Backbone:
């Protein structure tokens, strides 16, 4: 694979040099007249040539290994790939919708080079643990970056209308301009009020009911199957009812969030509290521990992984619940409100900016829960490596 | 009697009864203010409590409809109407069911393919897996209206946009479950396959896939429920044309609480049936494979 990728990239670069870069009404633009793009294409050819020499050397029985196969080669490949993406996208800026064969060939070359870099990074073993971890974070990040690059190139290259799908750069501009208003009030209304309050109350009450349920075995046997069933139901559907009961403001959204988060928490906590085995509970009995002592010192710590699982599931459910509930009626502020009205006005870049905020908030919320999980359940086998 | 209550059936029965009792009590409590208002307007004083209770349970547009009202509405809109009528709940459920199933099938196939890729390629494992997980922190349901409006604008309408949302929600549990399942064979077994000089394809079909089947069914249960949610939410922005989501929306526009509740109950029954069907398929397949426990 590491031998085939540079070859493919080199072949694509040859096409890029031959075919025109852009073809618009003002005539065609050749790759040779764009200095940056030309440099990139030649660099890819050099990389492919070096690789070809290596393959030939291997065929003759000589070791094909060179310094280029080492970490310094990785760096060069990374620079080539990202330099290529940058020059291609900046050249595209003035030729929206005019991309021709050469552009796409060179874009594929850049993409293959980027892939080669990720491939080599994934297979490399680093001596230092810190660098290894850094590489582990860099690989998914690079993947995300290249998705954005491809998105930008495809949307501008084909001249996709903004109404259908805006380019990431346009969304970014909207995000920066929309920053204090309206994005921040929307965020406060939906996330800080509805989501956080609903999440706290829903998870808290689910937890407390679970403590009660564990105490009474009859309830456990009766409530758990019902809870399992309810967890599978489309609970978002109660949103219109809650809006009718609690009015248009954030209270109704918080109510939806409470209902959505309650059952996963209940089911998971009950399962977690049952996770300690008989030997351990018998040991607590021989210590003459009371129910509460057993609960606090044995069963709750055992239940923590399950509780955090529920907290993580709920963090995404809560955001979804609050936003969807806003489709059924809100004051004129809120993320769901903004999304549904801006879709109607065909301001799709604003919608995407709002989605970006929601995605970021959701990911951070989830990340925070994962972090807390690591802190509190450091003893769990899945975190001991 | 004691045998009944030592199992599950008894307690579940009691809990369900309790829920219905609480529902009735809440219906009386929540509908009473409006009823008192009506009495005051009609200048009826000294209404007996029994009269008040029966009236609160039989309002036209109650704040919380009583269970028997919802049951009556469901009976009226399923059995009493012809299936093709737009007022029939069966018709709306059918619309939702079709996009649910389409999305579920696409999502499952996509999820399995992603999992196979992730298990077999280090690069995919490292670069794709974190995004599969964080894809679910994006509130896709929030984008649902936009996806539908946008896809409508480029001429794709009908089932596919709704199914797309279901797909997005349902591929995730399948991917995660299958990755876990495909990796669950013990090292000893994998080594045995190596001593047989088995190819990657052979290891996949003869060892990894059979091991992953129970995981596949468990995640399909989650996926089918999620894909129903996706289909319902996907119907909200289409302007309340057809489907259970449309019933919810039109019910909330016109204050038809009974209609909302009947749509909700129908959706719940559908979810339960779908999950149960996957469970039954699970049982049959595992039995045929000789893995039933």
Residues:
């Amino acid at each position: 694979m590491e031998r085939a990728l540079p070859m493919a990239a080199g072949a694509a670069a040859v096409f890029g040099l031959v075919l025109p870069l852009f073809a618009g009404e003002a005539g065609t633009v050749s790759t040779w007249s764009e200095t940056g793009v030309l440099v990139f294409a030649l660099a890819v050819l050099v990389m492919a040539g070096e690789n070809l020499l290596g393959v030939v050397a291997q065929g003759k029985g000589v070791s094909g290994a060179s310094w280029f196969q080492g970490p310094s080669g990785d760096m060069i490949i990374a620079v080539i790939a990202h330099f290529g993406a940058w020059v291609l996208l900046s050249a595209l800026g003035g030729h929206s919708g005019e991309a021709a064969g050469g552009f796409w060939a060179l874009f594929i070359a850049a993409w293959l080079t980027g892939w080669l870099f990720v491939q080599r990074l994934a297979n490399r073993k680093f001596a230092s643990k810190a660098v290894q971890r850094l590489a582990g974070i860099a690989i998914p990040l690079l993947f995300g970056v290249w998705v954005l690059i491809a998105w930008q190139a495809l949307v501008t290259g084909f001249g996709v209308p903004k109404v259908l799908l805006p380019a990431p750069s346009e969304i970014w501009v909207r995000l920066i301009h929309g920053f204090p208003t309206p994005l921040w009030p929307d965020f406060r209304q939906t996330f800080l009020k509805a989501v956080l309050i609903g999440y706290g109350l829903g998870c808290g009450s689910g937890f407390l009911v679970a403590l009660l349920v564990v105490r009474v075995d009859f309830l456990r046997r009766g409530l758990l199957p019902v809870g399992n069933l309810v967890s599978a139901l489309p609970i978002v559907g109660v949103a219109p009812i809650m809006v009718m009961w609690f009015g248009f403001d954030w209270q109704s959204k918080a109510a939806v969030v409470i209902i959505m988060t309650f059952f996963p928490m209940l089911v998971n906590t009950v399962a977690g509290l049952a996770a300690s085995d008989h030997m351990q509970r018998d040991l607590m009995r021989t210590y003459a521990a009371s129910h509460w002592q057993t609960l606090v010192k044995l069963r709750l710590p055992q239940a923590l992984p399950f509780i955090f699982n529920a907290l993580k599931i709920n963090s995404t459910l809560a955001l979804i619940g609050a936003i969807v509930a806003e489709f059924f009626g809100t004051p004129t502020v809120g993320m769901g409100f903004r999304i549904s009205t801006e879709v109607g006005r065909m301001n799709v870049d604003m919608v995407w900016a709002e989605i970006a905020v929601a995605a970021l908030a959701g990911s951070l919320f989830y990340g925070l829960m994962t972090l807390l999980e690591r802190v509190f359940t450091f003893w769990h086998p899945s975190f001991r490596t | 009697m004691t045998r009944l209550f030592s199992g599950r059936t008894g307690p579940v029965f009691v809990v369900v009864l309790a829920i219905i009792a609480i529902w009735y009590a809440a219906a009386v409590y929540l509908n009473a203010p409006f009823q008192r208002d009506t009495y005051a307007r009609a200048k009826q004083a000294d209404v007996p409590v029994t009269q008040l209770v029966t009236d609160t349970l039989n309002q036209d547009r109650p704040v919380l409809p009583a269970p028997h009202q919802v049951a009556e509405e469901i009976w009226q809109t399923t059995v009493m109407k012809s299936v093709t009528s737009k007022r029939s709940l069966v018709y709306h459920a059918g619309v939702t069911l079709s996009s649910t199933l389409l999305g579920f099938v696409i999502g499952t196939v996509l999820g399995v393919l992603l999992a196979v890729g992730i298990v077999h390629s280090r690069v995919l494992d490292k670069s794709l897996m974190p995004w599969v997980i964080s894809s679910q922190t994006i509130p896709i349901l929030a984008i649902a209206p936009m996806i539908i409006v946008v896809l409508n604008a480029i001429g794709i309408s009908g089932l596919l946009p709704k199914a797309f949302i279901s797909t997005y929600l349902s591929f995730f549990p399948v991917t995660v479950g299958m990755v876990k399942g495909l990796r669950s064979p013990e090292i000893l077994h994998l080594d045995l396959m190596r001593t047989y000089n088995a190819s990657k394809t052979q290891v996949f079909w003869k060892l990894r896939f059979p091991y992953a089947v129970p995981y596949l069914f468990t995640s399909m249960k989650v996926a089918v429920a999620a894909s129903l949610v996706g289909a319902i939410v996907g119907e909200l922005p289409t302007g309340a044309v057809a489907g259970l989501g449309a019933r919810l929306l039109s019910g909330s526009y016109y204050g038809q609480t009974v209609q909302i509740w009947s749509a909700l109950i129908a959706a719940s029954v559908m979810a339960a049936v779908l999950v149960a069907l996957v469970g039954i398929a699970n049982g049959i397949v595992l039995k045929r494979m000789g893995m039933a426990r």
User: Anything to note?
Assistant: The longest helix of chain A spans residues 179-215.
